[in-house]
Write a structure and sequence with these properties.
Blueprint (H helix, E strand, L loop, with lengths): L2 E5 L3 H12 L3 E6 L3 H8 L6 E4 H7 L2 E4 L3 H9 L2 H4 L3 E4 L4 E3 L5 E4 L6 H8 L4 E5 L5 H4 L11 E5 L2 H13 L7 E5 L4 H6 L4 H8 L11
Parallel strand pairs: 1-2, 1-4, 2-3, 4-5, 5-8, 9-10
Antiparallel strand pairs: 6-7, 8-9
Helix pairs in contact: 4-6
Amino acid sequence: MSSIGILGAGRVGSNLATHLAAAGHQVTLGVRDADDIAALAAGSSPHPTYADQRTTARTTDLVINATPGDSSLDRLADLRTELAGKILIDVSNATRDADDGLPGDLCYPGSSLAEKLQAALPDTQVVKTLNTMLFMVMTAPQSLATPPTVYVSGNDDTAKKTVTGLLGDLGWQPAWIEDLGDITTARATESLILLVPHILRRHGFQPFAVSLAR
């Protein structure tokens, strides 16, 4: 069991928190507004617990970034001291909203949010994963008719091994996990977000993942 902090208590963060807690991990959900902590905790089961984001980053062993990608860089760079020496799992995509509110243009064309985070947090091991699917598939990959793929990018093999173990706790089979290489490969998976709004406009909010067929 490890102590996991999740920055962002929206649909993505809450979904991950529930399933990681069910797998036996100690999970803390980090929220931006301290005034929200009591209200969230009152309506939840004993796990996960809630804290402000700085406390969450400081007091947990491993941290997941589930904050909105267009503001993640500034928010997490401010937590450089708290994140030092830890693994940061980045599951966010940095895009600007289109007119209908769906993902539009990339914030970092020619690069990626993961690369920007790694540069801003040199004492942290950033691993990119789980950003190529709708949030419900992150914790229920077996629910899709076709075996899905989850991609992993990061500079440190030990950190990626730890993340792969957590993916297993979420139901991802080893054959479904594709290690792409170092953190620069995250620009490829982050670019796949450009497919997502077109699929959603045609088919609605149905679970899917952008996967590799062999």
